[in-house]
Amino acid sequence: MFKKLAAAALAATAVSACATQEDVRTMRRPPLPPGFVALASQGEKLHKGIAIYEINGAPEFKLFDEGDVYTTRPTRRQVRNYLNSWLLEADLLSEDVAHARYLLTVTFEELSGPDVVWFTDKRASAKVRYRIEHARTREVIFDRTFDSAFRARFPGVTEEMVRSAISQGLTGSAVGALANDMSNEQIAKIAAATIGLPAALDSAYFASQHDTLLWDEKDARRHLEGRLQDAGPRGIFWSSLGVRAMESSPGALSDFEAGYSIGAVGALSGFFGAAPQGRPPESSESPDTIGAFDGTRRRDEATRRMMLQHFNRFLIGLGEADLLRIRRAVPCSELNWDGNRGPAVLVSTRDVVGYDCPPSARSRRKSE
Q1: In the structure, what pLDDT confidence band is assigned to residue 366 with cuts at 50, 70 and 90?
Q2: Which helix (H) or strand (E) holds 56?
Q3: Which domain holds residue 317?
Q4: How confident is the model at residue 63, as a pLDDT?
Q5: Per-residue confidence band for 182, with pLDDT thresholds at 50, 70 and 90
Q6: Beta strands 288-290 and 140-153: pairing type?
């Protein structure tokens, strides 16, 4: 059973394309900081004054959407969560509809989600109308439509994935043969149950060190944390299948069979544990980026980036209509010569915003 499972999994990854050298170089570059920030200041018309009033054209549920059994289009709830989060970051979000001075209606005239085919690029697109009206008079102060389309590219199999599979597979084979040689079948099952998690975590760390070789420590640490969170469940998954396969085998396993089975657990855990997470696009106007190896995460990336693209265009439109100030983004240290700590951190002025200021200082934003 397990031989067939391992062979099928490796065959599936073999037909997927290898990562190009250009993609590998791109994944190893640190993400760039933002160039501009849209931020409403105290006293401006829209400052903490907008509430989402209506969302049209997005599905209510993932299942049975317009004849489809399953849809990857963002639901109304997802759209609301996205927009509320981004409006909050821009200091535009009101407490609720009852306290809002302005109401935002978002209408999707076209909305398309990515496919669910393995090892493919994921594309999402939309044509969205943003309409803002005064909550009391219903006077329309903004009404524009924006197009957006984004592609999260399949990264392919990286060298780190192959090397991790080989090294972890050899380690697993040695452990399996040694455990089985002790004439204790239970020890071999324990080895299969425990090898997947450390193999996946070790491979994630190994791959992260190569991806972030030239990064500064803060960015590298943040990148590593996400990879470890993804790798853990993958190692546990392959370990559970390995134990199940060993339990279903008739009779006692030979040293070769035990080594093969536990080696396969290590190889698959290492292979998928080292899988890349992808990277953010260079700017909000970028049409695509390298996505994660995991298809579910890659679909989410395509959908979220497509949403963020037209929302950023909406913010730029507000700036063009003199309803919001678009300011230059700078390091927080440029605004605070004496450090970025304490409650008196300056995070914005009339013309610039510190993009990496402590989150605790956001409620103490000051304009000059």
Answers
A1: very low
A2: strand 50-56
A3: 36-153+285-327
A4: 75
A5: low
A6: parallel
Whether residue 90 is found in the same domain as residue 192? no
| Helices and strands of the chain, counted as H and E runs | 9, 10
Q: What is the pLDDT of residues 250-291, one digit of tens each?
A: 556 676 777 788 888 899 999 999 999 888 888 888 999 999
Question: 310 — phi, psi (to 5°)?
Answer: -75, -25
Count CB neighbours of 183 within 10 A.
8
What is the chain's length? 368
Give CA 154 to chain center in angstroms.
Answer: 14
Do 72 and 101 lie in a common domain? Answer: yes
Confidence at residue 215, expressed as pLDDT on a 0 to 100 scale: 67
Place of tokens 């300056």: 346
Apex CA 305: angle with CA 31 and CA 233, to 5°?
A: 75
Domain assignment present for 280: no
The verdict on 145 and 172 lying in the same domain is: no
Task: Judge whether 318 lies within some domain.
Answer: yes
Co-location of 306 and 335 in the same domain: no
CATH of residue 70's domain is 3.40.50.10610
Work out the pLDDT band at 357, boundaries 50, 70, 90.
confident
In this structure, which amino acid lies at residue 122?
A: K
pLDDT band of 333, cuts 50, 70, 90: confident
Do the domain assignments include residue 279?
no
